[in-house]
Amino acid sequence: RDHDELGQHVHKEVVDKMGPGDHHTHTETTEIEKDGETVHKEVVERDAGHGTHVHKEVTDTDKNNTHVQKTVTDTDVDGKHIHEVERVTSNEQGVIKRTVTDTDGKDAHHHEELTTLEKNNSISSTQHAVDDRKVDGTTIHEELDVVKVPGATKESHRVVTDKDTKQCHVHTEAVEKLSEIEGEKEAVVDSKVVLQKGNTTTVDVLHQEVNNKNKATNHHVESDRTEKDGTSVHEIRDTVTTEKGVQKQHAVVTDKDITDGHVHTEVVTTSSKNGKEQRAVADEKVVVKRGDAVTVDEIHKEAAIREDP
User: What angle do CA 12, 13, 15 make, to 5 degrees?
Assistant: First the structure.
């Protein structure tokens, strides 16, 4: 069918094809010419059997020495719905391709964006993806970001999980960042685990850095709990590791109500090993309140060992 309307020329074709079994294809092709601009549009509906349905639209536009092709695809298969939009722009500046994909299924959603730029025989790209899903009662949230340019790559990967069991609740966070710029590589990892079990909450935090020049790790564990006798315990453990040595610190703070008063204790021990030298420092403090009477007991200890040649 050809006709002219509102200063534009429209050409349209419709084709229906029946294939074997449930295979059916419906195609509509439209070409519109107006004000020096040409638009080519193609719509395809396809039933491929086995519960699969595909809807696809392709639009080509030529204007001002720029060609834009846009493809929209909707697919229903195996209980999932996939929506994909692809846009390709070509001109003297280069070729830009951008794809956005959304996938919805039972207990799962995936969103992804990918953009590439091709110019002067070099390719740059950015990727962003978000994934939400549920596996065996565990809720998982995942994010991925990747940026690539000639000579450099940066990547960030983040995963957050939550899980409930009969005894406890576990929350985890992990972030990994990788970068490579002109041969210089660096990796940074951060993780966090929060465990809630009865009257105890433990937070475990780990930070690691590795690059061409050095390696460092910070490990921090913090715990709050209530003992059966009512004693409140706050505990902190820190471990710092570098290529030069290791330093550890352990701090415990307790509070307890007694029959005629209150007892507060603080114990901090620090140990370090740097090359051939080892050092240890311990500080203890006990505060006892009975009525108007307050007793404070403090102890400080230091020790050092050096391995002389």
Answer: 155
pLDDT band, residue 284 (cuts 50/70/90): very high
CB 220 within 8 A of CB 205: yes
210-220 pLDDT per residue, tens: 998 889 999 99
Per-residue pLDDT, averaged over 211-236, amounts to: 93
Contact, 265 vs 254, CB < 8 A?
A: yes
DSSP string, 225-255: EE-TTS-EEEEEEEEEE-SSEEEEEEEEEEE
The Cα 249–Cα 282 span in angstroms is 10
For the chain, the 3-state helix, strand and coil shares in percent, each to the nearest 5, are: 0, 85, 15
> What confidence score (pLDDT) does residue 41 get?
81
Question: CB neighbours of 37 closer than 8 A, spacing ≥ 6?
Answer: 61, 62, 63
